[in-house]
Design a protein that fits this description.
CATH architecture of the largest domain: 3-Layer(aba) Sandwich
Structural class: alpha/beta
CATH class of the largest domain: Alpha Beta
CATH topology of the largest domain: Rossmann fold
Number of strands: 14
Distance between the termini: 34 Å
Radius of gyration: 24 Å
Number of helices: 10
Strand content: 25-35%
Helix content: 25-40%
Strand order of the largest sheet: 6-7-8-3-9-10
Length: 308
């Protein structure tokens, strides 16, 4: 898979001395969905704004399909669709008029069939003649996506696209995003809903304090950093974990009725077998057990917390 965006040494500092980004290196593959995750203020929106030509970097370079974002601004910007966080729309314009106008801004000839396809895919067709002021917050969010898709971009940035959208509609929008990826559109997604990234992303990049701390395939990231927990519900209260079990990464709950054993997600089964034998030898009996596997959210929180 070829790279469609190449980011090399991008930094951004402001006159106040605040450093928003620190030497970011990142390659984004053509046709993938990349989830860019990070806490508030981590630098996600700043990085997107630089790639889209809205903010100038202090150092480094970005190329889109081989074109520099500064020297070839018109070419790179025409390849990009951007859905910002803010619900900024032409209040008294109609849905159809607003999306059609956005297409014209990029010098594209009118294409009613494309506009219809976009509006239908985002469940906005029935609202095509409605004024934007009458739309709900969720509909306005979908309208922003429609405007970003109006000029048929090769790359789509979705900055918190499902903020304020209900669960059912969020899942519908996930299907839209997957469908766009299947047509070859590269999608970069920032989101506070970690389950959203876990559901639809191919790769995950985590940014914190203006630095990329990890980039990996979602499945590989969960394989490398994922953990499993074995939770044992005890038959009798335990005051402390016996010394004979000290070699295990195990905790006793405050009520003394559960033992929680954390182990590598790909640990060999013989480790569990040995634990069971050692529990019996220590005279510990349990009446039930359940396993819990870490989610992408667990991994994300662990990564961010471990950073200084």
């Amino acid at each position: 898979m070829t790279d469609i965006i190449s980011i090399a040494g991008i930094s951004k500092s402001y006159a106040s001395g605040f450093v928003a980004l620190r030497e970011i290196d990142l390659d984004i593959r053509e046709g993938e969905i990349l989830a860019l995750l990070g806490p508030n203020g981590a630098g996600k929106t700043t990085l997107i704004s630089i790639i889209c030509g809205i903010v100038n970097p202090s150092a480094g370079s970005v190329s889109v399909a081989g074109h520099d974002i500064i020297t070839d601004y018109k070419k790179t910007r025409a390849m990009i669709g951007l859905v910002p966080q803010e619900l900024t729309t032409d209040t008294f314009e109609t849905v159809w008029g607003s999306v059609s106008f956005s297409r014209g801004l990029f010098g594209k000839v009118p294409n009613p069939s494309h506009i219809e396809h976009v509006l239908r895919s985002l469940s906005l067709w029935d609202k095509r003649d409605a004024k934007i002021i009458t739309l709900s917050g969720g509909m306005k969010r979908r309208l922003l996506i429609a405007k970003a898709l109006s000029h048929e971009p090769r790359i789509l940035f979705l900055d918190e696209p499902t903020a304020g959208v209900d669960v059912e509609l969020r899942k519908e929008m996930w299907a839209v995003v997957r469908g766009l990826r299947d047509t070859g559109v590269t999608i970069i997604l920032t989101t506070h809903y970690i389950e959203e990234a876990e559901e639809i992303a191919d790769r995950v990049a985590v940014i914190n304090g203006g630095e990329i701390i990890v980039v990996d395939d979602k499945v590989e990231l969960m394989r490398k950093l994922g953990k499993k927990q074995l939770i044992l519900e005890l038959q009798h209260k335990l005051d402390a974990i016996p010394a004979s079990l000290s070699s295990y990464d195990m905790e006793l709950t405050s009520d003394g009725m559960q033992l929680v054993y954390t182990y590598d997600i790909h640990a060999e089964h013989k480790g569990i077998t040995a634990l069971m034998a050692d529990l019996v030898a220590a005279g510990i009996r349990y009446k039930d057990m359940v396993t819990k596997q870490s989610s992408l959210e667990d991994i994300f929180v662990g990564l961010v917390r471990s950073e200084p």
